[in-house]
Amino acid sequence: MFKKTAxxxxxxxxxxxxxxxxxxxxxxxxxxxxxxxxxPAGWEWTExxxxxxxxxxxxTRTGAAGQESSxxxxxxxxxxxxxxxxxxxxxQLDRNQRRTFPNGATARWKAGTKLSWGHYVFSxxxxxxxxxxxxxxxxxxxxxxxxNLVEAxxxxxxxxxxxxxxxxxxxxxxxxxxxxxxxxxxWYNQLNPQHIAYSCWSNGRTGNTVIYxxxxxxGFAGGPEALADITDYFAKAEGLKIGAVRRTDVPGGExxxxxxxxxxxxxxxxxxxxxxxxFVSASVNASDPNTCxxxxxxxxxxxxxxxxxxxxxx
Length: 314
What we know:
Layout: E1 28-30, E2 35-38, E3 43-48, E4 53-57, E5 73-79, E6 90-100, E7 106-114, E8 119-128, E9 131-139, H1 147-159, E10 162-163, E11 169-172, E12 177-180, E13 187-192, E14 195-200, E15 209-215, H2 223-237, E16 246-250, E17 253-259, E18 267-273, E19 276-284, H3 297-307, E20 309-310
Antiparallel strand pairs: 1-2, 2-10, 3-4, 4-5, 5-9, 6-7, 7-8, 8-9, 11-12, 12-20, 13-14, 14-15, 15-19, 16-17, 17-18, 18-19
């Protein structure tokens, strides 16, 4: 019987959170540009592209399940140089702090109204090893976000901040897994709490060819059993005629996949690596005239399958 952990996500669907493996430690953000930090307790990350991440406060979320949002939400990114205008144009300040932390990071942050903007703003910068982490929230004059919550989360991020090497990999904050970035001229790399995804650049970011990878929360007797889990599902659910099994070695294991050209699931795969199992799939909306199925799709799919691996959180 099909295990839910092998469900390949459709372009508009999501993988049930209950079926995904959980980590005992706090979600960890490792960026491509070379910093690592923990998501503060009581907060969750919602979107990450390898460079910037959005986090929001759990207790103040509202909205339908799967579509929750919080006024206490902001993005964290990087800068190459300090913001020269950081101290300018403030008409009222409720926060104005500078601090050096035990990990060697220095940080500054302000909160208040900007005279020329007509907005309430929280701005923060932290520097470690020459790398600059930047936070900014722009709100109405009477802010909807809680300055105390945001300030405390920013401080916690700085406390856990580390300087790490730049990397060509994408690190999933919650799954303890990583995979290779695909060329940005063709793919937009993005992560959410359910998977790592690569969306084709056809018209901006609207292409309807997507490669997904995510871990299984279940073990298998071997790679063929893992592959059968995903292919059997689509054979039954969509009447998909599954192609022949193909195989290649990867460090610490093997990658197996099938090819179904001309279908919505042109590639389905399973990877066994260092005792863990991962699924990789390509999804195509063939009925969309703007679809960006690329002749290199097979190579890109295999690049992800060969690179997906366990990450120790460092």
